[in-house]
Prior knowledge:
Layout: H1 15-19, H2 23-36, H3 41-138, H4 143-173
Amino acid sequence: MTHDRDSHEYLPIGLGEMTGIAPAAVEAAAPILQTASGGSIRAGVWTGVVLAGIGVVSLIIRQWGPWQVIAGTQRRADIEGMGKRIAELETRLDRQSIQHEQKIEQERREHAAELQIMRHRMNNLDQCLTMLLALIELDPERARDSAARVRQMRERQEANEIAEKGAIAAARLAPAIKPHAPESAPLI
């Protein structure tokens, strides 16, 4: 047997037939065997690298299916998770929207009440001024007495206005202050 670099004579005859290995594999392994028997190391290294590369590629191909299954499962889980989060956010947004609408309606009622108080006050002032002028026109000498009567009337009106404003302020605070239920005593 000669050990030429390009010769495959050093391979035992019928190696592929005896082991059931394909002739192409025997051909690919020839440089490695040649290196082991003293041939070129470079050819053996490159052949080993090529065979390792083929092994890695075949491993990747074999694992591609399971990777796809795992990735698909993960994507489905992510989409389901996002769907749940979106549903929770929609629910929260709906709840906040309802609360906001209730708050706006409460503020509208409060402003309407305040406007009613302002109108009432303006009517009272107009009424007092008109009455004072009428009393002065009837009897200019009793203007001092007329002014005192109008001042007393105005003081009563101001007291009523303060009570109305207090009622509005209490109505604003009522939703903020929630009464606590009394604790029930244990039954014996």
